[in-house]
Design goal:
By secondary structure, the protein is an all-alpha fold. The protein has one domain (3-74). It has helices spanning 3-33, 43-47, 54-74. Helix 1 (3-33) packs antiparallel against helix 3 (54-74). The two termini are 17 Å apart. 0% of the residues are buried.
Length: 76
């Protein structure tokens, strides 16, 4: 395997682990603190709503990696 492929695999695995941790921690917090379905949005999420959305972050990283790989193979 080339160095670029290993680096991309490591980055993708780090994003997957971060997304899993973020999702499970939010679910645990929700289950332990409040039984309401519609609660107030935390201040951290109000300040940075896109950074705390792991699905959106995964899509952005995927498309950036896709463009980077495409440019790499086109200008190789």
């Amino acid at each position: 395997m080339s160095g670029w492929l290993i680096a991309l695999i490591v980055i993708c695995l780090a994003i997957i682990v971060w997304s899993l941790f973020s999702t499970t921690s939010l679910l645990k917090e929700k289950a332990s603190t409040n039984k309401e379905l519609d609660a107030d949005i935390p201040d951290e999420v109000k300040k940075r709503p896109y950074i705390f959305n792991p699905i959106l972050v995964a899509y952005i990283v995927f498309f950036v990696a896709l463009v980077a790989i495409t440019i790499f193979f086109v200008f190789r």
